[in-house]
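Work Package 4 report. The design task specified in the project plan requires that, given a folded chain encoded as structure tokens, an amino acid be chosen for each position. We show below one input record used in the internal validation round.
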């Protein structure tokens, strides 16, 4: 088998590996591996009490937005980086996690008298005890949390989203509160979903290609405004594990390289 035939077979195999059968996303407030076809990277910031946030609009933090378009529907999935906001409250919120949340939400250190956890933070005047009382329950962990994008379109963790986006009516909406309560055994008094991010998933009527491009441009230029209180620490970016299809494609490339080199060595 010559090099041309080897390369032809590799191209065909790569096309097959890179084009798996695709079904419409399940709108449940969480993105499973391989559920969405397309993504793009965009900036984001915390618009909730920004003076107490380490994620200011003037700084650079990025996350991914995922979408899929079919002939009849458009699906959109948006999440805050999990190391910045995860779905824990009540007894699922350990004392150590509460301290870390509190210290990050109150950073930078403003020089005030030390709170009970020693962070010198005055965002909550009575310190760590008030934080534990106010910020470890379902209502205050999810009550005002939301994302705003595309000129003011909103979706929140209370189960609400705007009626339309770029003229396309919203058909169905779920968020990560729906997901953890339905799937992970959480309730309104306890949730320990440390690896589940704050997320918003929407299904609209069909978008044209021009509308999709307009939406992407709008999100990238305006960025995503999340409302996060409290916020977790981190660098504002999640590193995703490659999808199985991507790993298979990479493996085929390595096999092809080895075959090609072996053939050349025999000449």
């Amino acid at each position: 088998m010559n090099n041309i035939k080897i390369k032809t077979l590799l191209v065909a195999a790569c096309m097959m590996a890179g084009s798996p059968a695709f079904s419409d996303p399940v709108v449940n407030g969480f993105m499973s591996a391989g559920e969405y076809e397309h993504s793009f990277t965009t900036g984001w910031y915390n618009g909730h009490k920004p003076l107490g946030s380490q994620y200011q609009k003037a700084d650079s933090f990025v996350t991914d937005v995922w979408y899929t378009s079919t002939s009849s529907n458009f699906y959109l999935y948006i999440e805050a980086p999990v190391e910045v906001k995860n779905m824990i409250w009540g007894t699922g919120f350990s004392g150590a996690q509460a301290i870390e949340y509190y210290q990050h939400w109150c950073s930078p250190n403003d020089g005030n008298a030390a709170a009970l956890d020693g962070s010198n933070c005055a965002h909550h005047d009575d310190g760590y005890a008030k934080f534990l009382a106010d910020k470890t329950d379902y209502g205050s962990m999810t009550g005002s949390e939301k994302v705003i994008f595309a000129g003011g379109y909103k979706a929140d963790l209370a189960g609400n989203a705007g009626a339309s986006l770029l003229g396309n009516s919203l058909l169905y909406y779920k968020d990560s509160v729906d997901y953890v309560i339905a799937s992970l055994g959480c309730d309104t008094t306890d949730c320990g979903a440390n690896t589940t991010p704050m997320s918003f998933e929407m299904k609209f009527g069909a978008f044209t290609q021009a509308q999709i491009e307009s939406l992407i441009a709008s999100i990238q230029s305006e960025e995503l405004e999340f409302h996060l209180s409290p916020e977790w620490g981190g660098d504002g970016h999640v590193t995703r594990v490659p999808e199985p299809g991507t790993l298979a494609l990479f493996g085929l490339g390595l096999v092809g390289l080895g075959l090609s080199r072996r053939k050349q060595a025999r000449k």
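Residues 27-93+136-240 form one domain. Validation will be extended to a larger panel in the next phase.
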